[in-house]
Amino acid sequence: MADKSENPQPASSNDDGPIIPDAKSLPDPPTDAISKLSFLPSSSLLASTSWDGAFRLHDCDAMESKLSHSASMGPLLSLAVADEEYIFVGGLGGSIVRVNLAQGTTGTPILETVGAHPPRAPPSLEKAGGDGSSSSSSATLSACSCLVTLPSSPPLLASAGWHGKFHLWDLRQSSSSVNSSTTTTMSSSAKGPVVSLDLPGKAFTMDTCDGRVVVGCSGRRTCLLDIRKKNDVSSSSSSSSWVAESVVDAESSQKHQTRCIKFFPDGQSIAVGSVEGRVAVESVSPSSFTAKTDDSTATTTMKKVYAFKCHRDGDLVYPVNCIDFHPKYGTFATGGCDGTVVTWDGVNRKRLTSFRFPTSVASLCFNHDGSKMAVASSYTFEDGEREHPRDEIYIRPMLESECAPKQPQ
Questions:
Q1: Which residue among 85, 309, 326, 353 is least packed, with the fewest CB closer than 10 Å?
Q2: What is the distance of C-alpha 34 from the center of its chain?
């Protein structure tokens, strides 16, 4: 693997352009691999989760830590932000917890159990007819790897995981308080999901837009789900009024495993990053799925609008770990295991700019107005166990020229 710089690219200037902003690291970063970053909707507060089992809250204007708290549920793999008051975290053991941040910024945060993914037996036990009783291996297979909130009434939370299932949770239902000094479990007062669907494989990545959810699964499968209320029930009825319909279960146009997936702002396309240093733009309009026949077995393939190579260094090819769209311009940024962030104009198919970090970019996100980007510089073990720079969260101011679409020539 090519060496990476020990520090992010410093600020610099020249006679022909503006000063290039410097990325600054936040204090009190996670002590293990960073799994997810997400800004709160309308503030400078940044939430993060990590394999050290803690969720954190940083003020990115003051560049200070506001909250660091262990959820006592093992490594945290997923994070979803509901509003300025609540976030949701998902753990390796399958538990899902709601965190009251309004309380947490002034004292001990209030944690409530939303639910838990059901345990799944390891494949060897499933084939032998095992009952999937709880064990360390079955708990790992229940891992909650993906969380998204749906802007609906009532509020809904979607989860998916390594157990190969999709769940929809009604957040009006009673939930159990969590004693953070003990391992989180789903108590009898926390009800189960209102909808559960089988996925074609492990869920690795998920996003939502306009009542639809897209899930990237193992085996290069992409699932598009339509979330809606049943027509024959009123909004005041029970949570069983919700239905999730699988609209598409298709093979990605990419030839290698999907690592990250994100809706374009208009909801008509998705950007799909793969482990092979490539991003594909695929259509998700109803008429865009094509059937192909291979050895007399019909499958459905996503329609590729276009694809491009990225996060490469000569013959070295790096996974694309994360994608996020600029809230104002609709351009997007990708982060890869080469330690770089690159911004792209997806409409005009142009590269805008790039900047480097000490190690793999595990997660990134823009703030509410796109003036800042948060970047998790955190080794993702693409080369196995080895010495690596410590995990850091960087905040980088973004120039308009780095995010605005290219003007047509």
A1: 309
A2: 12
